[in-house]
Amino acid sequence: MDEFIQGHGQGAFVSHINQMRADELLGNLAMQDINLELALEELQIVRDFISTPEHILGSELTKHGEIAEQMAVGFDRSENFVVGKESGYTFEGVKRLAPEDYLLDGLPVQSKFYNSPSGTFSAITEHLDLYPDFISSGGTYEIPRDQFAQLLDWLNMSQESLAKLTNEEGGRAARKAVDQIRTFEAQNGVRFEDVVNPSSIDYKDAQLGVAENTINIKEGKIGSLDNEQREQFTELSKPSLTQGLQVAAIGAVLDGVISFSSAVVFKMREGKKLGEFDREDWEYIFKESAKGTLRGGLTGGGIYILTNFAGLNAFFAAGLMSATFSITVSAIRLSKDEITLEQFIDGIGDTIINAAVTGVGALAGQALIPVPVLGALIGSIIAQQLFSIIIKSVSLLEKIHIPSLQKALYMYKRNESLEKWSLSQIDLLLISVGENEMEVEYEEDKDEYEVERLCLMV
User: Fold this and answer.
1) CA distances from residue 63 to 69, 146, 240 in whole angstroms, order as listed
2) Are 333 and 343 in contact (CB under 8 A)?
3) What φ, ψ does residue 176 adopt, rounded to 5°?
4) Which domain holds residue 256?
5) Same domain, 85 and 201
6) 394-415 burial, b for 16+ CB within 10 Å, e for fewer?
């Protein structure tokens, strides 16, 4: 397979890889729009709840209890939804005056928000007296975050340190709370930390006068999480060294296999069977395979770099890499005197034309046959074949018409009859080669002529 066709095949492959990353980014961002919408809907539910305080149970001093419940569920659901996760918190299936306030992963949770740590824990013990099977059935309690931290600090203090706390430092409340908790643990055979968990808010955050601000703060955090998610998706969609090396490796393997197969076919066309290959044949095959592997790796890696870091079109990058490799090989041959300078220059022209033709074909083929790689390969092969046919046709026309045009010029110079030669033919010849750049000798008896160039063509 022609190296330009192989190059455009790799270009199509790299283009497909790049498009997959772009599509994945667009898909992730679209999903994130949905995630953000769901998260904000949860916050709106909490906001709607506190907007009608007359429907909230309790007095002005105790309405924060139900507000805390709404915040516990709504805030957790919001934070999870914005990052594309499910939340274990729900009010679904829970009656308003049930033993539990909401469910967490299907298990009952009772929220207790009182104005002091000891008061909150007293409420827990009172609730457990009413529903003695609450803990054994998997139930847990949630209390204000700041009060939970305070109770843990007291529990972790030594008896001596706890006894030294003055009443002004909360010593009396601390010792009362610790005694309550130790008794609670002994009676129920549980540890405080196993059945009591901190809420996501402090006690003050659930108060009716500041609840709206608490929601606004949470909304800001949701916005930050949303931005982090989008930045993460964008970062994941960027080209990477690892992916570049993978593309180069795939290109090396594919080009190596194709080169190996092409070399084997070439040798078999010489009339040899596979079992008849000698050492020289295998050396040629492996040499071509090594060249193909190197070319494939460099081409694949180069296309990946040019498309992702230089912003080039994949098919243009493929043509550029293939042309660079071809010209480099020709330059090496020139340095070894294997070809002349004229052949080297002519080869550069052929390389550029071939790269352009196969590139246009690959682009058109991929557009007409939207199958990754296949469309580009078919397009570049067809374009190359059509171009080859055109070149051969032009060469054939030149062989047919140029002698007649040359004879017309000869007759023109001799002022002989040009009736059977059209003026357009003569004009074409004069424009193509220049009247003063050719001298024609014609032998009428032999009906032959000879054209000698006296100067270089312009």
Assistant:
1) 10, 19, 54
2) no
3) -65, -45
4) 3-21+239-397
5) yes
6) eeeeeeeeeeebbbbbbbbeee
Dihedrals φ, ψ of 284, to 5°? -65, -45
Q: Are 184 and 247 contained in the same domain?
A: no
How far the first Cα of the chain sits from its last, in Å, is 36
Tally Cβ neighbours within 10 Å of residue 311. 8
Question: Helices 279-309 and 241-269: crossing angle, nearest 10°?
Answer: 150
Tokens of 77: 């659901």
Is 165 within the bounds of a domain?
A: yes
Nearest C-alpha neighbor of 53 from the set 218, 217, 206, 219: 206
- Please choose, from the candidates 78, 79, 122, 73, the residue with its C-alpha nearest in 3D space to the C-alpha of residue 102: 73
Rounded to two decimals, the pTM is 0.69
Do 357 and 382 reside in the same domain of the chain?
yes
Taking each continuous run of H as one helix and of E as one strand, the counts in the chain are: 14, 7
Alpha carbon dihedral 35, 39, 44, 47, in 10-degree steps, equals -170
Residue at which a domain ends, from 397, 412, 438: 397
**Cα–Cα distance for residue pair 327/352, rounded to 1 Å:** 9
Q: Do 248 and 377 lie in a common domain?
A: yes
pLDDT (tens place) for every residue of the chain, 458 residues total: 456 667 667 777 887 888 899 999 999 999 999 999 999 999 999 999 999 998 888 888 789 999 999 999 999 999 999 999 999 999 999 987 889 999 999 999 999 999 999 899 999 999 999 999 999 999 999 999 999 999 999 999 998 898 888 888 888 889 999 999 999 999 999 999 999 999 999 999 999 989 999 999 999 999 999 999 999 999 999 999 899 999 999 988 888 888 888 889 888 988 888 888 899 999 999 998 998 898 889 888 888 988 898 888 777 777 777 777 677 777 877 888 888 888 878 777 776 776 666 667 666 776 776 666 566 556 656 655 665 666 666 555 555 555 555 555 555 555 455 455 455 555 555 555 444 444 444 444 444 444 333 333 33
The number of distinct structural domains making up the chain is: 3
Is 458 inside any structural domain? no
For residues 8 and 95, membership in a common domain is answered with no
Candidates 220, 239, 232, 292; CA nearest to 263 is 292
Say whether both 270 and 393 belong to one domain.
yes
The answer to the question of residue 137 being in a domain is yes
Task: Judge if 310 and 427 occupy the same domain.
Answer: no
Asked if 245 and 319 sit in the same domain, the reply is yes
Strands 140-143 and 448-453: unpaired
From 188, 204, 234, give the residue that closes a domain.
234
Please give the Cα distance from 289 to 274 (Å, whole number). 16
Within its chain, how far is the Cα of 43 from the centroid? 32
Question: What sign does the CA torsion over 430, 436, 439, 445 have?
Answer: positive
